Structures are given as structure tokens and as C-alpha cells.
Amino acid sequence: MASSAPAPSLRQILDERISQLLREAEGILEAQAARQAGEARGRARRETADQLNQAARRMRQAADAEELGAALLDAAAAFAGGAALFRLDGAVARVEQIRGGPEAAAGGFRALEIPLALAPALAAAIESRDPVATATTPAEISPLLASCLGHPADARAWIFPVAARERVAALVYAWGEVEGPPIELLTQVAAAVWSGIRPPAPEGLVSIAPAGPPAAPVKASAWDRLSPEEQRLHLRAQRFARAEVARMRLYRAAETQAGRARRDLYGALRGPIDGAREAFRKTYFDPCPSMVDYLHLEVLRTLANDDPELLGENYPGVMV
């Protein structure tokens, strides 16, 4: 009589059952992971779409180019390690604002002007009107910009042009972990809005005539009597003043609030105000006899809320 096969031991039965349970558990976990990954991707897409929608709405509601630029840069910085906005003035790219940079860079960006001849990557974005990826070497982005931002030697950056009114009005310079497509979309929205914004008239120089033909001959305004070069200098001076005061509000917010509370903004912000005044006088006020103290007007309007008493008794007043 043939002997029967030995019955499996209890340990073998348990090992087989445990292996089966582990395989089933792994399948369940893989299915859960796939489902969670899909849900995460869906959430990420919805969050990105919401970010872009809010940014587009904010840009469409911007009252002027400065507000538009701030909205664009805030949105772009969410898709990069850091971002800066350059406005173009002839052969020079002028820094307007920065987000996400080191503290040292924020101070170094004061009135920073980059000659395009020394920044081939910026010039290439302007010429092509398309985004440009570049190494952040001094030879590509200029020694001044590379020194100010302190990029690592092997870093890369993206440059996105804002093409408005058949010209490139501004550049978004982004570095770190850059998500190119969202930023490119944001610059396209900004370009469409930028095209509809009229440049501001300099305060104290432009008089706006009522619609329709004048009842009598109208004398040329003070602005119209300026040469084209003087007009350009006045506009540059306005942009400089707005940028300087915006930096004070952004990077000296605590001092600004304390100065308002003490009714002594100048005492709280003496260093940056004096530095801005010296730069404004040297660059704009002294060389141009028709120049208006736009820096004082911006300090009064933006920091002091049009209340001269908030500036303090030691404030030096309008440049003469």
C-alpha cells in the first residue's frame, strides 16, 4: 500500500496564508496610492488654476503700470524661487521690484540699471519676444546683476518678456525652481492689460483739456514746452520716485507704521529717505532745470497719506 503525501504542517499553512494576505495588502496599497496620486494631481491642477485666475483678475483691475507690475510679480514668484521685474528704458533694463530674493539683494537693487549691451540674455528675450533660459553667469546676465543676486555658479534663470503695444515693456526674471508655463501665461495676461494702460502725466506739468474743440486757442502746457529728452527724464524721475517709496513701504513696513504713529516719518526713515533724495538730486534734479521733486510728492502721497505733518518737523522739504 502506497504511503500518502505528508500533510502540510501548521507553519506551512500559516506562511502561505500570510504571503497571500501580504500580496492582497500590497495590491490594496498600490490602488490607494494610485488613487491618492490622482486626487493630488487633481487638487494641484485646481489650485494652480485658482492661483492663475486670481492673478489675472488682480492684473485686470490694476489702475496703473506700477500696480500691474506688482500683481504680475506676486503671481510669478509663486511659481519660482524668486523673481524680479525689469522695466525697459531704451538700452537699459531698470529694476522695479523683486520678490523672494535675499535681503542683501533687496538693498542692492536700489535704482539698479542694467545696460542691455552687458546682458545678452535679457537682450535676447527682448529681441525674440519669447521666454529665454540662461545660465546666471556675469557674461549672460551682466556682472552687476550676477553680483547683486549672488546666484550659484551652476544656476539657471528664465526671462519672460511682457510684449505690450508692439514692444517689450518689461521683463520678468525668475530663478530657482521655475515653472515656466504658468509664468509665461501670466506675462501674456499682463501684456494685454498693459496695452490698455495710459502712461501717467507728470504732476504739476500736464493740464488735461476737456473733450471737444476748445472755445479759444489753448496755450501749450508746461509739459508740451519740454524737449523730448526732458520729458523722458521726467518720466524716469517719476518711476524712480515710485520705486524708491515702494521699497520703503515693503522693506521698512514696521518703521513706516511707527513713524506715522509718532508723526515723524522722516525720523523713522531718515536713512532711506536721505539716500533716495541724494540719488534723485544727483541723477534728476540738478541736471534738469525743469525737474519737479517727484520724490517728495511720492513720499507725501504714499507714506504720509497726503498729510505733511506726518513727515515730522525735521523733514527737509521740497528740493530747491
Please tell me about this protein's structure.
With 320 residues, the protein is of the alpha+beta class. Among the domains are: 60-194, Beta-Lactamase; 228-311, no CATH class. It is 53% helix and 13% strand. It is built from twelve helices and six strands. It has helices at 10-60, 65-77, 103-108, 120-128, 138-141, 143-149, 180-194, 228-251, 253-262, 265-268, 270-285, 294-303, and strands at residues 82-89, 92-99, 113-115, 132-135, 156-164, 167-175. A six-stranded antiparallel beta sheet has the order 3-2-1-6-5-4, with helices on both faces. Strand 1 and strand 2 form a beta hairpin. Helix 1 runs antiparallel to helix 2, helix 1 (10-60) runs parallel beside helix 7 and helix 8 (228-251) packs parallel to helix 12 (294-303). 32% of the residues are buried.
Q: Summarize this, please?
A:
About 55% of the residues lie in helices and about 15% in strands. It is α+β, with helices and mostly antiparallel strands and about 325 residues long.
If you consult CATH, what is the topology of the domain at 60-194? Answer: Beta-Lactamase
Number of strands: 6
Structural classification: alpha+beta
Question: Poorly predicted ranges (pLDDT <50, ≥5 residues)?
Answer: 206-220
Number of helices: 12
Give the overall pLDDT as a whole number: 79
The CATH superfamily title of the domain at 60-194: GAF domain
Proportion of β residues? 5-15%
Distance between the termini: 125 Å
Shape annotation: elongated
Radius of gyration: 29 Å
